[in-house]
Amino acid sequence: MAVTPVAPKRPPTPSGGPPITTLATPPAWLPLSWLVFAAIGLIGFGTALAIAARSVTGTPGAPTAVATVHLGMLAFLSTAVLGASHQFGPVVAGRRLRSVTAGLLTMLLWVPASWLLPFAFATHRPVLLEAAGVTAFTAVCLAAWNLSGPLLRRGRGTPVLGLRLAICYLVLTAAFGVTYTFDMHHGYFLLLPRRVLAHAHLGLLGWIGLAYVAVAEKLWPMFLLAHRPSTTAGDWAVRLVAGGVPVVVIGLLIPSVPLTSIGAGIVVAGLVGHLVSLAGVIRHRRRRMELLHGFVLTSAVMLIVAVWAAAVAGMFDLSITLRTRAIETEVFALTMWLGLAVIGHLHKIVPFITWSRMRTAGHTKAPNGRPLLFAHLVNAPAARATYALSTLGATTGIVGMAGGHVVLVGVSGAALAAAGAVALSNLVSGPLRIIAIDRRRAVASEGEPTPTKPAPTPAPPVSVS
Ligand code: HEM
User: Fold this and answer.
1) How far is the CA of 199 from the centre of ligand 1 (A)?
2) Global pTM?
3) Which atom in ligand 1 lies closest to the alpha carbon of residue 63?
């Protein structure tokens, strides 16, 4: 079996944290293009939520509601986590992807499929739905093969194990999903709500949730400069979420309420471990609280709301309408737990990757002439506006779903779309601004008369006299 060469580490970053890029990482354009598409996906998800607010609020099975959900799950969240995994996997495992070209091909299959699938849902095109489902499934299998290069490396700790299992759950989620697309067309079996819920929880908790719980164990201490005495809580979070999700899924499919409850208990114990780990990181941080803390803490609140909504849906004797609302609130709150975490970390990950690329390209100076830092690549007020808009989107969406308020769900969609637009323009315009300033500097220095060497003072004429 070909062994992928282990890459030597690069020097630490200007924030003094461990390097985010090593010689194992792919070229910057690969993760960055995935992340740009993820930001566009957030704009699409928010816009669809605003337009389809009426069908999303109360009739989750409606085609436009399912379409909106998949814009959020595929074009935004899954694209962001798949993109970050193409960078994060090689960095943490210290081993390259199997192929950069395969990474590009995955993106060229996944991104169109993640938009076509919702479009096919919304416009009742069963053949297009099947084609988009098969394309998405193919892209997911290609990503699993490519990422297995770094992620199958042994002894690299819980984050790598967690990401490895999360990718496996993505393949399973897509397998369920593509099977359902054919079933919706040919009616092989009844697509009962619990079967859809099994697919939904596999995707939200097993794929994106577990991926976040795993990579957070590396990203949080790095970005929050925390030195924790132990990672036990985080290690258990990964193990319990990874172990509990299949029990929940099998419980929903059988169906067996006791099995589903046992699985849910295990997952919730894992999520508590995740929150305890966050508390530990904040307690042992070596930098003052900053915007990323705001995103991560608000995201944690959404997780608590999701667990509460799931408990209400699972444990109380509710009418169908109220149970549907409770499940919708749970699914939306889980989406916002992961959405806010993704948006917050994008404001760190993108400048990190861009910074090293900028330096390699010779852009080493900030507008004030001092060494270029990550902070020069992000506009802080715009980042704060993104936080405010995404938090507004999350809270109005949850209150809207729980109370059946269509207007609030519409406001939520508009706020999330705006958050995506501000984040995208902020993270793209930062580096472009530095490049433009450097270009102006170069032109200005070209115009300047090159300081001619002062004519040598003629030796005083030797008087021959
Ligand atoms: C990869 C390709 C995927 C395909 C082909 C797919 C397909 C489907 C299908 C056919 C349904 C049932 C729709 C219905 O009941 O009318 C569904 C529902 C759902 N899927 Fe997916 N799915 C995919 C990926 C995902 C992922 C990655 C997630 C989560 C991270 C996800 C979350 C959901 C949710 C939450 C629902 C319920 C939607 C609702 O009832 O409003 N799906 N999916």
Assistant:
1) 7
2) 0.91
3) 16
